[in-house]
Amino acid sequence: MDSPLNSEIESFFDSAPPLNDRAAISEKLKEFIALNSSESGKGSRSPLLIIAKYTISYIHCHVTISFTIRRVACVTSGGTTVPLEQRCVRYIDNFSSGHRGAASTEHLIKMGYAVIFLYRRGTCEPYCSSLPDDAFLECFEVTKESAVQVCQPYSEAVKRAIRDHHAAVAGGLLLKLPFTTIFEYLQMLQMIAVSSRSLGPCSMFYLAAAVSDFYVPWKSMAEHKIQSGSGPLDIQLLQVPKMLSVLRKEWAPMAFCISFKLETDAEILLEKADMARKKYGMHAVVANELLSRKEQVVVVTNNGKIPVYRDKTSSDSDVEKPLTKLLVDRHSVYIKDSNT
Amino acid sequence: MDSPLNSEIESFFDSAPPLNDRAAISEKLKEFIALNSSESGKGSRSPLLIIAKYTISYIHCHVTISFTIRRVACVTSGGTTVPLEQRCVRYIDNFSSGHRGAASTEHLIKMGYAVIFLYRRGTCEPYCSSLPDDAFLECFEVTKESAVQVCQPYSEAVKRAIRDHHAAVAGGLLLKLPFTTIFEYLQMLQMIAVSSRSLGPCSMFYLAAAVSDFYVPWKSMAEHKIQSGSGPLDIQLLQVPKMLSVLRKEWAPMAFCISFKLETDAEILLEKADMARKKYGMHAVVANELLSRKEQVVVVTNNGKIPVYRDKTSSDSDVEKPLTKLLVDRHSVYIKDSNT
User: Alpha-carbon distance B37 to A83, whole Å?
Assistant: First the structure.
């Protein structure tokens, strides 16, 4: 680790306040990955799961062992905060409802993946993406007999949401890990990546979170709430080192990696997405424009740019369905190529 | 409006993007206030409601008309965002879960108030404050017979939450108005204050929202997402003009006004709270310190400083219960004094 980027990354992690619950997160990750890479996993095996073949060479003896291994995706979701004070009252945030990450997680689980959902506390969670914003208060009522019942017209959606969520968690197919700050997010992403190494090419990183580009290093941050009353405020922010390169090269070099590029200016979007793909060695970059992102995105790969549209003939379809389908197909090819 | 403060305020409002749904909000407010200031209001009258007496003097004839009028509180809750781009991807935010505003609203309604709950979209809502963060997914399960049922141990809390929320909304005692940005918040606060004028001293402003002190004027804001990649970022922010003075003096001069002061440094808290009380003419300022704010606060009035503690002998009590009780008592005295 002696390139300028690596020293920036080292200085970022050195400066970050340590995770409060690192040991508990590490334990959960270990368990989740063990469960989903063993034959005795709780979840049933889907026919979509690809058999991974590992060839062990030992002097003159070649043994090929075949076993099934569930694909595991780490889906990141929601925006990261950048605190402006150590005892944080104010922070910079990135706009993200978390809808894309939550909906994509549902589709990936349906297609046989186990998902580590690394999400911003309070943003949309899997199986809630089709419900109203304050689902809890809007979807239920208490009958005269003092029973809680689901209001129409939410009945079917609510049942499906609760049932599918319970099934995914109980089946060991969904691990939800919440974060708030950029410091928590990047430390947790590193932990997940390193823990997922054993999955080889069966691991996918689906990096839909809106990650801050700028931050204030912990050590140069004001301790207390910045006082108002003395005129305008100037804030100097450093660039967050680009962790995508180090994720690809060091943390999880065998994983299939997809990043997301959001712009408000459609003119520069595709070019920036392609630059990011090349610069960080991503297998695909999903380009989305703020206003049209729920209707269409463009998947940028080394084979070209593939537009993906929401199915407009169905009112309850989303763009995440064809998007995840396309990326899962690409992942299948990637696993196949890695094994030959 | 020609003082330096007033010209700052004018320039803030001139610069703000107009509210999308101003007409609909105005209609809702008018209806809610009419409902709660007429004898034929839907809600039942609580014995706690004070009879307001207005004396009409007309030359030599003095007529005293007595009629009941429900007290109406505007409770503000959650943090306001300050966009850094017009097509907003990044913004500055203030830490606030909205728990204090939500819990206080519940207590005020219980004590006979109607509440206009002006809250940050996505933060805690009244009747949800005692439930887990992702209440929707944690509190329910689907039975084998495909019915939705409440999991133990949430059964009673969930029923109470749903029932009380429905009763408050159906009874015309709770109007929820969500905001996101500082621009929306201050425009909506002004609308509420001006609409509440007819309630005279029966109107209360309980300003628990964490309002930004600094902002970027709309007209000098970047249109598109600020690009990273060219080194550190400098942000210059102007001070948000202090609207508390204008609320007291112009928007709602008869209302009983309580503001909140949050600091991380206990050393300066009480002094700053008392300065704010004097400067903005507040009837009370609630001083709270970031780490201890759920256990104790200090109510600063012109009669001195009154500490308020959570009742530690009861596990489900909160500091908002004794706090709202104290402030309602003060409001009663204020109404009485205003009528004599």
Answer: 44
Do A90 and B92 touch, CB atoms closer than 8 A? Answer: yes
Residues A332 and A50: beta-carbon distance below 8 Å:
yes
- The size of chain A, in residues, is 340
Cis preceding-peptide flag for A153 (omega within 30 of 0): yes
B279 reaches A (C-beta below 8 A):
no
Residue B321 belongs to a domain: yes
Q: Burial of A268 by CB count in 10 Å (0-12 exposed, 13-18 middle, 19+ buried)?
A: middle
Half-sphere exposure of A158 (CA within 13 A, CB side): 30
Q: Does position B57 have pLDDT exceeding 60, yes or no?
A: no
The answer, for B232 touching chain A at a CB cutoff of 8 Å, is yes
Q: Which residue has the higher pLDDT, B314 or A54?
A: B314
3-state secondary structure of A244: helix
Tokens in use for B91? 């913004």
Q: Which domain holds residue B123?
A: 31-36+69-222+235-339
Task: Specify whether the CB–CB gap between A225 and A85 falls below 8 A.
Answer: yes
The structural domain count of chain A equals 1
pLDDT of residue A60: 53
Residue B26 DSSP one-character state? H
pLDDT at A9 over 60: yes
DSSP B32-61: HHHHHHSTT-SSPPPTTSPEEEEEEEETTE
Show contacts of B139-142: CB within 8 Å, 24+ apart: B139/A136, B140/A158, B140/A162, B141/A162, B141/A166, B142/A159, B142/A162, B142/A163, B142/A166
Residue B328 C-beta-side C-alpha neighbours within 13 Å: 23
How far, in Å, CA of B265 to CA of A196, rounded? 42
**What does the pLDDT average to over A271-292?**
94
d(CA A286, CA A306): 9
Q: Is residue A5 pLDDT above 50, yes or no?
A: yes
The pLDDT value given to residue A50: 43
Which among A77, A82, A90, A117 is the top mutation candidate for probing chain B, defined by the most B β-carbons within 10 Å of its own β-carbon?
A: A90
Contacts with B89 from chain A: Cβ below 8 Å: 94-95, 210, 262, 264, 290
B143 CB within 8 Å of a chain A CB = no
Report the Cα–Cα distance between both ends of chain B, in Å, rounded: 31
C-alpha pair distances (Å), B95 with each of A124, A241, A270, B269: 19, 25, 35, 17
Q: For residue A214, which of A46, A94, A41 has the smallest C-alpha distance?
A: A94
Q: How far apart are the first and last CA of chain A?
A: 31
Residue A271 lies in a domain: yes
Q: How far is B268 from chain A (nearest CA, A)?
A: 11
* Among B301, B307, B311, B305, CA closest to B333: B301
Q: What Cα–Cα distance (Å) separates residue A27 from each residue in A23, A24, A153, A252, B301? A: 6, 5, 41, 19, 51
- The alpha-carbon radius of gyration of chain B (Å, integer) is 21
Strands A90-94 and A82-83: antiparallel
Residue B92 placed within a domain: yes
- CATH number for the domain harbouring residue A261: 3.40.50.10300
Residue B12 lies in a domain: no
